[in-house]
Structures are given as C-alpha cells and as structure tokens.
Amino acid sequence: MKNQTLAHKNIQDNHLKEQEYVLFKQEYALYNEMLSELKVEFQKAKKEVDNADRAKKMFQCIVAHSRLVLSKDRMCRRENIESRGYDTNAYVTAQKYKEEQAAKNQKTDTSQHNATQNGQPEQSDRPEQSDEIEQPAEEPQELTHLHPEMEQYQSCLPKQDDKNDTGRSDLRNANKTGRSDLRNATKSDRQIATASKQPTPKQKPPRITYNPNGFRPHGQMRDLFKSHANIKVAGGTYDAGKTFSCVAYIDQLARNYPGARLTFVHRSLKRVYKNIVPTYEKYLGFRPRSRADPNPTPITRYGGEHPDFFEYWNGSRIYMNGLDKPQNLLSDFFDAAFVNQAELVSFDTWDELTARVSERAGTLPIAFLIGDCNPSTPNHWIRQQTKAGKLAYFEMTFRDNPEIYNQQTGELTEKGKRRVQRLQNLEGLRYKRGYEGKWVSGEGLVFDTFLPEVHVIDNFTISTKWERYISIDWGFRNPSCCIWWARSPDDRIYAYKEIYKTKLTKPDFIRMIKANCDASDRIRYAAVDSADQDAVEQLQRAGFRVRQPKKSRTTQIDAIKERLKVDATGAPAIFFLRDRLVHPPDEDLKDTYRPLEVTDEFLSCTYDENMRGTNRDDEAIKGDNHGIDSTAYFILSLQNRQSIGSGRVIHGAVQLR
How far apart (Å, rounded) are the C-alpha atoms in residues 476 and 480? Predict the structure, then answer.
C-alpha cells in the first residue's frame, strides 16, 4: 500500500512538472514574440524623419526592450534554479573550471608522455576524471558571529510545507542529503553547514560555529525573531540596535532557506550603501569579497563597491534596492525585504511593497516584510496600521542594545554611558522621539507649537451668548472643510463642529452645512476662500453672509501661530473640541492615512525643505492644509473690522433684523 501511495505521488509530481514546463515554454515563446515585435517597431522608428517624436519612439522601444530582456533573464534564471538546482552564472563558472582542469590534465599527460619517451618511468598518480567539481583541500572557512542561543531562533522559523515543496527546487530538497539541518540537527551537526547547491571552486561551504559573545536579539526584538507575522516593524528610541537586528534577521533567512530572494530597501539607494551595507558587514564580521578575489569569503558580493547583491554559499541572494529607483524592486518578487527607516516611506509605497514581497517568490513558506523606524508624527500610517492589526509592531529602547546596556548586570556599559548622555542632550522633539521614544509632532512642522494636550479639549456646553461663525475651504477630490466657531467674551475661539469630507459638490456641501446648523447656531457670517466666486455666490444665495479675507500664505500662517501661543494665564487663544466631526470619518482619507480633520493637518503640515534662500521659503509648505486654510480665513476675518450688519441663521437661513 505504501509503495502504491509513493508511486501515485510520483505520478502527480511528474504531471505537475510537465504542466509547469508547458507554461514556461508558452511564456518563453510569448517573450520572444514580443521582443520580435519591438525590434520591428524600432526599425520603423529609425526610418522616420529625424525629430523629437522619432527619438521618443526609439527611446520607448529601447526601454521596453530592456525591461523584457530583464524579465526574460529573471524567468530563465528562476527556471534554472528550480529545475537544475543552480543559477546559470554558477553553472557557467563551473563549466569553465572543468575546462581549465581538463586543460591542466592534458598538459600533464603531454609532459608525462615526453618523459616516457626520454626513458623516464611514467607516473600515473593523477585521480580519475569525474563530473564533480574538484574542491579545495583546505578546511572550510568559519562564521563565528552568532551566539549559541541563535539556534533556538532558527528553530522558530516557519517550516517548509512538504506538500507545496515537492519537486519544486533541488536547492531546497538538498537539505536532506547535502546539508545538516540547522533547525533539527544535534549541536555537533550544527557546526557545519554545507552547500545546498553545487558549489563552485570559490564558494566553499562555511563552517558555522557559535561565539559566546556573538549576536543574539534582546528585548522585543526577540519576539520579532520568533513571530510568524508576515508584516512586522521594529520601532523605538534611537540607538536601540533596530537596524543591526533586522539585518541579522534577513541573514538568518538567507542561511536557512537556500535559494531565497531577499532585499535591503531604503527610500534612497545611496542610503542603502551608507546605512544598511556597513551595518550588514559589521554584523558579519568581514567584508564580502567578489568571486574573482583570490581569497574568497563565504558570502560573495556582485557589483563592486556598490554591489547589486550578496550571494550566499547556498544560492540565497540579498539585493540592494532604493525607492528612488523602483524599476527593479517593483518589477520583481522577493521572499523577504527589510525596509530601513520605514517612517520615511509613504503608505502607498509600503502598500506596493506588500505585493512585491510575496510567497510568489517561491522559497520561504511565509514571505516577510520587515522594517525599522524611529518615532514620527502621532497619526503616522505605521501607528494606524498597528491599531488596525495590519502589522506587528515591536517597541525597543536603547536598553535592548548590548553595546549600551549590560543585559546580565542591568547597568550601562562605559561606552553606553557616553551614548545615552548624547541622547539626553537632545532637545525638543528630538529628545521626545530619540530618548523617550514618543510619537510626537515632527521636525520641520509649520505649526510646531500645536500641542494636542493643550489645544484639543473635551466637549462642553457652549454658552448661547457667545458669537458663532463658520469658515469654509472648498474642495472635491481634496477635502471640503467647514468649521463651526464660537467666540468667548475674552476673545478665545473654539472649533466645536466640523465637516471634513471629499467628493462633495458645492451644492451638496452647502446643503450639508445648512443641515448641521441648529437653533443655537446664530451664524454671524461665513469666512470663505475668495478664489471661487461661483461657490461664494451659491453660499450667499443659500442665505449666508460672507466675508472674504485677503489671501496670503505667510499672513495666514502667522495669524494661526499667534492664536496657538500660550499667554500668561497658561491658555492659548484657540481650542478644538475633541469630537467635532458631524459625520463618520471619510473612508477614502482613512484608507490612505491622510488627515481626517483639521487637527491631523497641524501634526503633519511641514515646510518644503527644497526651498532655499528665497523669499518664498515661508510659503512653501507640504501636506494637506484644507482645514488649516479654513481656520486662517476665520482668524483673518476677525482682524478685519468692517461692519457687515447683524443677522442670525436658523437651520442655515439668514434672518435680517
């Protein structure tokens, strides 16, 4: 019965292989056909009149051709690995090596033949020819940068699913015969990790030994190493060892899953080489050399000083990618990715990365997208995703860094004392983020004096004697914003209701404003943007008196900043009630982690750092500012003392006295 089951399984496996091969041949033929079509289009473009349009067409053909060639190359390389167990490049190197050995042997045969003719005895101690690649006689190189406890973290890695893994990759199946399983073997077996692909002469399988002072994770990073969550981020204070540990995690995946495709990512490719690669080399304890180096290392670099990737002895590769050059990253699939300084990445880009880091890469049973980050604005998408349960967040501190904090004695090291002192010397927001690890408003904020704990207050019953106003900023794709204001006798203003919603036509927006005006809302006037006179006329026809303050970005910013200041009484001149929205949060804004109300804008609106040395520096700002503009229109309208008469609004209709 057992033999019948095995036979049936082999038939199924062979059938799957045949299906995969047929699909591969079809896709390969399609690539060739597309390449031929592109060549025809290129020849047509060459024959056209030499002008800008011709050059554009030729450039498009060249770009499309290069992308197709790159895709075809990846496809062929993947097929080679999965069907033969080696990459084409490694195979070519091995063949060259065999040819060199054959030439040496032929030369030896010739010299021995000449010696025999001269009366010298023939020596035939040369070993027999074999298809196997001759290995160097020296002992394997050692990797000693790991602590013995790392064995338990390797055992926590997800196990391969045999049902999905059958017949797919010689690289992965080689564990059973050519490699001691680091996760299940005895401690003595773990001392040696042999190659899981056919080794080339300069990729000798290393000997992995464990160093009592080697790397091991601390604090919540231990939980990250054990977690099977496919999306996880390590955050916390500066100097917590987040980057170092995340690099170690990627290395652990590379050594334990032969043939894995991994990548280091930063917003800037230059930062990959400045931030991540030096940390990676520090973690390894050596600088990977090129394959052509006479003294090779267990991990090989490809691409010179700025490598394209690092290749392990078992065929795993770690690629370098920058989001400023996304063509390679966003056109391929990876088993795992590490994103350095994830707080600098937009949510849209992160969302795209989750599609690129997928089980479609075909090696890891779970594809891992991990990142490290420093604290940023309170409403950052990382915090939003954490609250929604869409990523696992692990908060670390500098006490989790063994270079700073002795985990056994519970005391700062001598080096750590100096580093912590530097953290304590930080000021303002950098102190709160870097030393305390708090997610507070970021540097470069336009309204850096806005403090939620000061300016956002609990709801209360507003006196009917206080003057009431509204302020409006028009929008459609961007949010339309209307804020209801109450002004106290001591000239403090309170935002007590708010509309902040996209996809509202002007008539719908005005109807929504009127519907949310109740009997207590005796609106004196509406402060509005004067740029859209059609909208102003519609508002006037709806019964609202209108005031249109003169627009000036610098004036608007200064006016709001004056109101945000805390006076001698310890209170500012502007407040926002906590539950202001008169409708559920806008779903489109929520899905893209954009501000949902005006106070969110205060926490994310920043100056444009690209502006330098011009009189427009104070006006160039980035981020949503629709509620901020609405607020500014009202504050500026209070500075304009022109008389507009008295009136009251009942359910949105102005009644003149």
Answer: 6
